[in-house]
Design a protein that fits this description.
With about 650 residues, the chain is α/β, with parallel strands linked by helices. A hairpin with a 2-residue loop joins β3 and β4. It starts with a helix and ends with a helix.
Length: about 650
């Protein structure tokens, strides 16, 4: 560890060059070309965000190059953006190189404006020049350089083009003399705020704008650098500025910046239409079209369902479970354990009904892995093609009623594959409030693919009306709970500003790299959780806790839900694995113990019922123990309450005769 600290000390003294840019503009490729191999990846203090640093010698002087996380704005919406903003705030760089995707100049200029406002020494690097030219987009380098008064170079990182001119430019960064004015009210409040702010690595103007944009993440820095009186004054100024507009101030500032960006882009960019553009533009327009967008979405969801639900959760899982584990691994493990481990207790621990090998590994690798792997492939394709942001933009309206924005669509759709996974992807949401609401809705009402399979199997034997009742009750519950949660959970929701990237053909290499890294991550994260869950069950079984639970829960199941007492076991199993529980109900239906009404009530209840054990662990990991217990404490009684009300209503209405 000692060496690491020493290294950081030398870094503190060495001059820094920061690479800043939007996500996916080729920053890492440029970083690799500048620094060669000497790279150090470490988490940014106090976060899980990784920052890569490396060394470079220019004109006999050593520099540390820092590859900052990709950002869309320097008013942070996510942990990545906060880290990049903090690096600009805390470390005084010799040069900031903004790497720009030349095809997406508007998105980049939004960031350039903020960097210029910070007054940092800047160099602009127009990367992906070739892709832009293929699309008929030309950027006038000189024009851009004149407007901002800084050096502008072009690179094609994948072909190693333009790197030497970038190295030359990086030694001569200039602080831009470009000025952009907001409306009179905002400008007046900026100048009042500037007088209260201390001297720092970035301009007071940019900090004033962060405060005006309602940047909560700046709080720690303000407390460290200002007296509380001054902070109160700043907040009062912000509130006063905000009173003038019907919209949130952050939105007003963004809109004024975007308008300026449109003007700038018009000056430096020329576009000639190419034919390749037409096909992708056509698809791009269909995907967000108010009428055609929905059928297209249905098509995408159907394709997802076929690939993940049918092929992944059906074909691959069956092969892994029945052939790989059923015929080979589990019998082999059984033989080995029986021959080498003579103690009955340990045999049960490894290969019993709740064994580490027979249950934990079979589930983690034979059942969940094929579903997540196919899902990751599909997700990477959607991500790479530019469809995801379009989907989010389209469903934005529905989700606004639940205090969420369109980004929340993704975890919810993922939940249909596996809620555990989906809970993890809530990281993409911008505020804590949104992450909690989506985690709650996933735990409550989104059935995972394994469970949906069993449920559809049960409804196959019932009239169609039964399936429709199930779908309607779930939809209503999700909208209702989301709406109430949005009112009760503190915090603000974010504005939905999403630049829609062009639709393009996903690159197989990208999709594979993303999928593999996600699978590796899944194995590291999920397998230990499965083993832990299985051990808990194993102990409960050995200590005879399971039968005791059955007797205790029986009155609730029989009297409130009107179900036969045998269903208790299904609910207990449902906690371990959602489809386990549904499979238990399936067996009871086969034995003729459940009528149509009981099937509907039991399936609604088990769908809303507590998330499976892996999901619960994931909620603890992502949201913390307190939030997880609160969610479980709500979901558990609530699911039985809905089931009870449904049971009484269906009986009273004599809905199923």
């Amino acid at each position: 560890m000692h060496d690491h600290n020493h290294k950081q000390d030398t870094e503190k003294s060495a001059a820094k060059i920061l690479l800043v840019g939007n996500p996916n503009v080729g920053k890492s490729a440029i970083f690799g070309l500048l620094t060669g191999r000497y790279v150090m990846v470490s988490n940014y203090p106090g976060t899980t965000v990784e920052v890569t640093r490396g060394e470079i010698t220019l004109h006999r002087e050593k520099f540390v190059v820092v590859d900052t996380p990709g950002v869309n704005s320097l008013v942070p919406m996510s942990e990545d953006e906060k880290v990049t903003r903090d690096i600009l705030l805390d470390e005084k760089p010799e040069a900031v190189v903004q790497v720009i995707d030349s095809k997406n100049i508007k998105r980049a200029l939004f960031l350039t404006l903020q960097l210029v406002e910070m007054g940092v020494p800047l160099v602009i690097d127009l990367n992906m020049k070739d892709e832009a030219s293929n699309r008929g987009i030309e950027i006038k380098e000189d024009g851009l350089g004149e407007i901002f008064g800084v050096e502008v170079v072009s690179t094609v990182a994948v072909q190693k083009k333009g790197i030497s001119s970038l190295k030359k430019a990086a030694v001569h960064p200039r602080v831009s003399n470009f000025r952009f004015t907001y409306d009179a009210n905002i400008e007046e409040h900026i100048s009042k705020m500037e007088t209260l702010l201390p001297e720092t690595n970035i301009s007071g103007r940019s900090i004033a704008l962060m405060i005006l944009s309602g940047d909560k993440t700046l709080k720690g820095w303000l407390l460290g650098n200002l007296t509380t009186e001054k902070i109160d004054l700043l907040e009062a100024l912000r509130d006063r500025a905000a009173e003038k507009y019907p919209m949130p101030l952050s939105y007003v500032i963004s809109q004024q910046r975007l308008k300026a960006v449109d003007g700038l882009a018009g000056e430096v960019m020329t576009k000639t239409v190419t034919s390749e553009k037409d096909a992708s533009r056509f698809i791009g327009e269909i995907t967000t079209h108010p009428v055609w967008g929905m059928p297209f979405l249905m098509l995408v969801i159907y394709a997802l369902y076929e690939f993940v639900g049918v092929f992944g959760a059906g074909t691959l899982v069956d092969f892994m479970e029945e052939v790989v584990f059923g015929e080979y691994l589990n019998p082999w493990a059984g033989k080995i354990v029986m021959s080498f481990v003579p103690i009955q207790f340990l045999q049960d621990l490894l290969i019993g009904p709740y064994g580490v090998i027979t249950m934990a590994l079979t589930y983690a690798i034979a059942i969940i892995l094929p579903i997540t792997a196919t899902f990751f492939i599909a997700f990477s394709i959607m991500e790479d093609s530019g469809y995801l942001p379009r989907l989010a933009a389209m469903l934005n309206k529905v989700f606004q009623t639940m205090g969420l924005n369109g980004k929340a669509v993704l975890p919810m759709i993922l939940g249909l594959g596996c809620d555990t996974m989906a809970t993890l992807t809530t990281r993409i949401l911008d505020t804590k409030k949104e992450r909690i609401i989506v985690t709650l809705l996933l735990a409550l009402g989104v059935p995972c693919s394994a469970q949906i399979g069993v449920i559809l199997g049960m409804f196959g034997k019932q009239p169609l009306s039964a399936l429709l009742v199930w779908i309607s009750v779930l939809t209503l519950v999700i909208l209702f709970v989301g709406f109430i949660a949005a009112k009760l959970i503190p915090g603000k929701r974010t504005d939905f500003i999403l630049e829609l990237p062009p639709i393009r053909m996903p690159q197989i290499s990208n999709v594979l790299i993303k999928t593999l890294s996600r699978i590796e991550w899944y194995l590291k994260e999920a397998v230990p959780l499965f083993i832990l869950g299985t051990l808990i069950l194993f102990v409960a079984d050995k200590m005879k806790v399971l039968p005791f639970l059955q007797n205790a829960a029986s009155p609730l199941i029989v009297n409130v839900l009107g179900l036969p007492p045998q269903t208790t076991e299904s609910f207990i199993m449902g906690f371990l694995r959602r489809d386990y529980g549904a499979a238990g109900l399936f067996a009871l239906q086969e034995q003729g113990l459940l009528n149509t009404e009981q099937v509907v009530v039991s399936l609604v209840t088990i769908t809303l019922f507590i998330p499976c054990i892996a999901n619960l662990f994931m909620i603890i990991k992502e949201r913390g123990l307190k939030a997880a217990l609160a969610i479980a404490g709500f979901v558990f009684p609530f699911s039985f309450a809905v089931g009870g009300v449904l049971h009484k209503s269906l009986m009273w209405l004599k809905f199923f005769g």
